[in-house]
Amino acid sequence: MARLINFLLVFFLLGLLAGTGALFWKLEHTLPPLAYSEFLTMLDHGEVTEVRLDGGRIALKDDTGQEFATYAPDVGTLLPELRRRQVAISAEPPGDPALRNLFTITLPVVLVLLAWLAVNRTRQAPVPTEEREDFARDKMIDMATVERRITFEDVGGIPEAKEELIEIIDFLVNSKKFSRLGANIPRGVLLQGPPGTGKTLLAKAIAGEAGVPFYSFSGSDFVEMFVGVGASRVRDLFREAKKNAPCIVFIDEIDAVGVLRSGAGGFGGQDERGQTLNALLVAMDGFSREDTIIVLAATNRPDILDPALRRPGRFDRQITILPPDVKGRLKILQVHTRDKRLAEDFDLREVARNSPGFTGAELANLVNEAALIAARTDKDFIDSHDFDAAKDRILMGIERKGLVISEQDRKTMAFHEAGHAILARFLPEADPVHKITIIPRGRAMGHTQQLPLNDRHAYTKEYLRNRITILMGGRAAEEIILHQQTTGAENDLLQATEIARKMICRWGMSTLLGPMAFARNEGEFLAENTTQLGISETTARHIDQEVKKLVDTCYQEALEMLMLEKDFLGRLGEILLQTETLDREEIDIIFECSQKKRLEKHQGGSPAECDSCPAAAHCTQRSDLAA
Ligand code: ATP
After folding, report:
1. d(CA 598, CA 226)
2. Is the pLDDT of residue 526 over 50?
3. With 90 as the cut, is the pLDDT of residue 494 above it?
4. What is the band of 614 on the pLDDT scale with cuts at 50, 70, 90?
5. From the CA of 155, how far away is ligand 1's center (Å)?
6. What are the beta bridge partners of residue 61?
7. Pocket flag, ligand 1, residue 156 (CB < 6 Å)
8. How far apart are CA 197 and CA 202, in angstroms?
9. Is the shortest distance between the CB of 323 and ligand 1 below 6 Å?
10. Residue pair 300/345 in contact by the 8 Å Cβ criterion
11. What is the per-residue DSSP string for 503-533?
């Protein structure tokens, strides 16, 4: 099929070239014709200024600049006459013009044809044997000779996956136990999960525990420009692996070769990928009972894999690895802080609690960043401040210290963030505010960080509505205090609309549309990508209306709540302008103080307790200041 497409493409190119050549040839020969006698009359009247002789063909130009073509029966007798009348004469080199034109057409065609043949030959050229053998051999790690092996001790927080894989080690080490009874050991295990959850690490740990050779590849190692190279690499790899069995073959990012084959065949890369996948499928089918080779593969996109890969006898075991829960995070942090010098009173549990959604790779990065920050300030131990700074850096980006910000922009940010924080503090079910800052970091000018108390696996409609209201709090606060709308709300609006759309289209949370799904996830681990299911125009209009209604209602709620808390909003904004950053404890103190004030205001009493209030240092409404 691919060949047919190649052929058609070349055919099309040839046609295009021939067409262009013919067009030029035609243009050349489309001068208005003139009878030879008429030409002679014009010559007698001195109207011909220029002639171009091309064999018997004469192209002439008259004194008005117009061009004609004619044929002379005998050019020889005409020449003296032309010279006498001082007509400018030029001539084409001898040869058939049609042939010349044919040459100009055919030369590029032949060149293209030759280039195509050359590419095709190279694509089919066999790769030298040594190169092929080196490909597999270079990727082998002999675990028996490795000094510091990765084992299950190095993997934290994924007990289910570990349990499942411990059995694999038994297959590798005690294969006879199984073959004695006629059992076939599993051939392939597919590890699937979001990036950084430890799939590669687990594969290495299995090889480390079993002490068997480990071949590590990435799917893209097989795919080359030349069709057939990947397939031959797969065959060589398994030939080499059989020599060193029992062993583990690990193919990371298997989606690079294992992507669903399209029925229509392909061109170039697609063709190569298809052949490589076929070779892999055939190789896995070709294992005999004595071949103790386990193929481990990892992917972030199981949804796009070819179903043939999952068939029993190939990757029939599939293990899903998701980001760890709080217990898992603690285990992973313990693994990565084994060789770090932590302050004595430092509690890793607090870090684990405050890092929901972090994957193993992100936790490893967090520990390393904290160590770097501590080292930069010449500390002897890593403490909670270093972890806090590292987390801010990872979540919000690097502090932009050099950025010059006008007083007006600082004000906008302070009231904007105060708006988010107050709503997050008052709305039920909202995640507690961990930190508010108006120091620009990364792309954000300010940030209100909320952290859930526990890992959430399901979200209620109430929670999601409140989330939208909190996101709207920034814009609402700016409107109330500064009577302005700014671009600072861009990201909030995007997020709010996205949540509202998902509530309606995916989670059936609209009363009008009912419990129906109008969109689905494209990838299991790429929850952001959704495709619309076939929906009618009316439904599409209803979806838009419902999304708008939801976001509008939440915005009104945000406005109303902040109007009621206008004093607190103003105060929190002022405090933020002075301190730039507030953490959870400080926010709690200010909140309590504000509640007290409000109570007093309502009761009409004097703020006598103000001086003893723990937030007095921050409070701009202190009784002494007011006086
Ligand atoms: P990708 O899909 O992007 O290839 P992955 O799932 O294969 O990612 P790994 O390469 O295994 O992720 O993990 C990267 C690093 O993260 C590891 O080298 C390790 O330091 C750390 N890590 C990830 N998960 C764990 C874990 N469960 N325990 C300890 N460390 C972990």
Report:
1. 75
2. no
3. yes
4. very low
5. 9
6. 50, 67
7. yes
8. 10
9. no
10. no
11. HHHTS---TTT-S---EEEEETTEEEEEEE-
Amino acid 617 reads A
Residues serving a catalytic function are: 417
Please tell me the distance between residue 197's alpha carbon and the centre of ligand 1 in angstroms. Answer: 5
* Centroid of ligand 1 to alpha carbon of 212 (angstroms): 21
Q: Does residue 232 have a pLDDT over 90?
A: no
Taking the C-alpha atoms of residue 252 and residue 221, their distance in angstroms, rounded to an integer, is 10
What ligand 1 atom has the least distance to the C-alpha of 193?
Answer: 6
299 Cβ closer than 6 Å to some ligand 1 atom = no
Is residue 297 within 8 A of residue 250, CB to CB? The reply is yes
Q: For residue 139, with 0-12 CB atoms within 10 Å meaning exposed, 13-18 middle and 19 or more buried, which class applies? A: middle
**Total count of residues recorded for the chain:** 627
Decide whether any atom of ligand 1 lies within 6 Å of the 158 Cβ: yes
Angstrom distance (rounded) from CA 614 to CA 8: 81
Report pLDDT digits (tens) over 375-390: 988 888 898 889 888 9
pLDDT of res. 24: 59
Question: In this structure, what DSSP letter does residue 482 have?
Answer: I
Inter-residue contact 32 to 17 (CB < 8 Å): no
Q: What is the Cα–Cα distance from 323 to 331, expressed in whole angstroms?
A: 13
Tell me if 330 CB under 6 Å of ligand 1.
no
pLDDT in tens, 245-260: 788 888 888 888 767 6
**Widest CA span in the chain:** 128
Q: Which residue out of 155, 160, 200, 336 has the highest number of ligand 1 atoms within 8 Å of its CB and is therefore the one to mutate?
A: 200
Structural domains for the chain: 2-124 (3.30.720.210), 129-320 (3.40.50.300), 326-396 (1.10.8.60), 407-609 (1.20.58.760)
